[in-house]
Amino acid sequence: MNLFLRSAMLFFSMGSLLLAEAQTAKGPWKITGDEYLHSKEVSVLAYHNHYPVGKLGGIEVIHHDQRIATNGMLYFRHRQQLDGAPVPKPIPDVAIPPRTVHPESSSIRLDFAFSNIDFQYAIHVLPQEDGAFGINVHFEGVEDLSLLDTVTFVMDFFPGSFKGKSYLSDRGDLGHLPYDFHSVITASNSTSLATGSQITLAPEDPERTIAISARSGQIQLLDSRSTEHNHWFTIAAEVVPNGTGPWVELVIQPNRWEEWVRPPVLAHSQVGYHPEQAKVLTIETLADQGVPEQKAQLWKIGIDGKEELVMEQVPKSWGAFMRYHYSEFDFTHITAPGLYQVRLGDYASDVFPIKESIYEQGVWQLSLNTFLPVQMCHMEVKDRTKFWHGQCHMDDAIQAPSGTQFFDGFRQASGPTVYSSHEHIPGLATGGWHDAADDDINAGSTGRTTYDLALMIEEFGMRYDQTTIDTVTNEVRLQRPDGVPDAVQQLVHGLKWILANYQVADHSFVGVISQHWETYLQAGGWGQMTDNQIFQPAAESAGNPQAINDDRLIFTSKDSRREYLMASLLAASARVLPQSHSHYAARAKQVAREIWQREQQAAPVIYDNVGTPRKLWVQKIIAATELYLTTKDSKYLDFLVASKEEVIQNFDEVVWALSRVEKAIKHAGFQKAYKAELNKSSKRMAARYSETPFGVIMPNQVWGYNWEILWDIYTKYYLSKAYPELFPADYLYNAIHYTLGRHPISNISHVSGVGTHEPIPAYGVNRADFAYIPGGVFSGVEIVNPDFFELKDNHPFLWQQSEYIVFGATPFIFSILAADQLLTTD
Ligand SMILES: [Ca+2]
Ligand SMILES: [Ca+2]
Ligand SMILES: [Ca+2]
Description:
Layout: H1 9-12, H2 17-23, E1 30-31, E2 37-38, E3 42-51, E4 56-63, E5 66-78, E6 99-102, E7 107-113, E8 120-127, E9 133-140, E10 148-157, H3 159-162, E11 166-169, E12 174-176, E13 194-196, E14 198-201, E15 210-214, E16 219-223, E17 233-237, E18 248-254, E19 265-267, E20 280-286, E21 296-301, E22 307-313, E23 316-321, E24 324-330, E25 338-344, E26 347-348, E27 352-354, H4 365-375, E28 380-383, E29 386-389, E30 398-399, E31 440-442, H5 443-460, E32 468-470, E33 475-478, H6 486-504, E34 511-513, H7 517-521, H8 537-541, E35 553-555, H9 560-576, H10 582-601, H11 616-631, H12 635-642, H13 644-649, H14 651-658, H15 668-689, H16 706-711, H17 713-722, H18 730-739, E36 782-784, E37 788-790, H19 799-802, H20 806-825
Parallel strand pairs: 28-33, 30-35
Antiparallel strand pairs: 1-2, 2-3, 3-4, 4-5, 5-10, 6-7, 7-8, 8-9, 9-18, 10-17, 11-12, 11-14, 13-16, 14-15, 15-18, 16-17, 19-20, 20-24, 21-22, 21-25, 23-24, 25-26, 25-27, 28-29, 31-34, 32-33, 34-35, 36-37
Helix pairs in contact: 4-20, 5-6, 5-9, 5-20, 6-10, 9-10, 9-11, 10-11, 11-12, 11-14, 14-17, 18-20
The structure holds calcium ion (3 copies).
């Protein structure tokens, strides 16, 4: 059977929902081994995810391959609660209920009980007639609602799936779900769009139509974006006391038909391939829709519209992974330069080139010439006719008080602080990059960005110059060369912030962050986030209306692991700065040596913080290698020899650094242990990289995988460079292909502005404009437990999928330059 000729479009063309329903069967419900309700067309997840703030949790609905609803849960406040929460608190936020499956009825039961209140309830998910499913909520030991405040069953519906589509209720409310929020906001809430005992969404779109009915009580359709852009549309169902029967009884009917087929994903690098690279296009299908059996074809696109079939082959099965099946179409032996396209039945990939100069232009440059400058703090940034942001945060920074546990993981240890609480620390309004879309500079992210820049200058030269950076006026002008290599200028920008720490104290700081949650979350321009005036309490008491206490807090707690990281990046920076910046080189080298000396003489200080590395020995060993490379002082090699046991214990994390100094270590015992472990490490890595269909490591985590895949870049590059027979460069190329489109569920490039698709709006500082920052690298495809991959391409507010971070971009630049170097020097 030709699976893919049976296109779902056939059924769309019938035009009418009723026709589609009348003539097609619905896939039967079953409970999967992962304990969710499933048919071919719809899955209902039952508390498989526990990240409601990221719109991931509770009851969730995947409808024709789109997760259209999430956070189906009971919201209430119990009057016995003593936590003083000022607003109704979603109790399931903290509760992970036990799940019981009843295979005979294909139903799922979730039991909720609480340690601090005498109250239980259960949610049942169960099949209903005509392909629908039900959600029932039973209360136990409760007679009425007198102990519950603001109780309602809610479920959020994805704006990207429904905005612009219509809705109607059986009471006669109807209209379109708005692109932008415009409901009337009252003191406590916003007005509902519709009320009734049945509400139907998107009746005009058979693939999206869904009807929600309540057997008793009313349901409301709300636009929940009244407070934050990232919220969704909400269905809120009334809770009606009903003795031992269900107090909420919803019937949810997603329109569906068993013959629905999801098109295959033809996943490949959107920018194309170097002739000498392995070239594997990965074909993804839903596992329960079978595997492609026809031949895939590679076509070469000629001038004058001529096309040539250059190879065809039945794709080779890789096997099942999550809910998908993967096959591989390997055209590695095709090396002739040209434009190509892969076709499979009715489906075709994007057109991509094969050519030797594939990584030279238009791949990494936007990350250096646009994304990194836009993230620069304490500068004004203009890009031709666009104003990115004004000079910002010139009022940095005031000392965070002792013992402050803050948002985004910033922590100030109890005990003495560098300055007094809330006192302004001078000299910190310089350098650094905004960590992400948020209003902070973190030593970890600015440090790792600086480190990436130093090593890429060392390895690849980096004479590229497209940006003017005026360090006198603090103005940045994009697409305007100034004769100084951009990577050097960015490196100096990172060093400025880090070295400023060491002007104030004998250690680095955690970072600076907005004092206020509201400012911290504010999208828009960084230039206006504070008033750029240093706050002076005396001015406030004198009634100065200009003085606003909006200066960012600096968290100054020391950590020895971070100190060694700083020593590493400062030592590396000192090696690569040109004569024109010798002042920074000298200072970086001096501080790096002082850090080593200080830390060797005292017991380590360990205080966990966001951006602070976790493993002391890993950081120590890497610092010793960098300091040796910079100073050629043999004491650092002696340290490595003396630390042989720790080197072996942490081998996979430090071997990239050691590969650069290994030949200088003339110690037979060390050499023997190192070589033996190197062989073992090679086998470990080969096993790990073969675990997924993409030749990359994809751990089970809330966040998308792409940064982690790129953060491994030093290991991939330096080991392939030093020991190519043990560590093939394919690990590096696979990471690049993944980033640029060869990944699950779509072929979207994870680098904004690079690739053949229109860039998706991403979670950057301009997210509320549904915009993106060219060259930003977002976290990408994430796992929705237990077995679904997701990357919402029209909704920039799922930070775990589309957030940019500054040290997501630099390892991408490094990767592309590394691949170019390895491919062109072979
Ligand atoms: Ca941050
Ligand atoms: Ca420049
Ligand atoms: Ca201020």
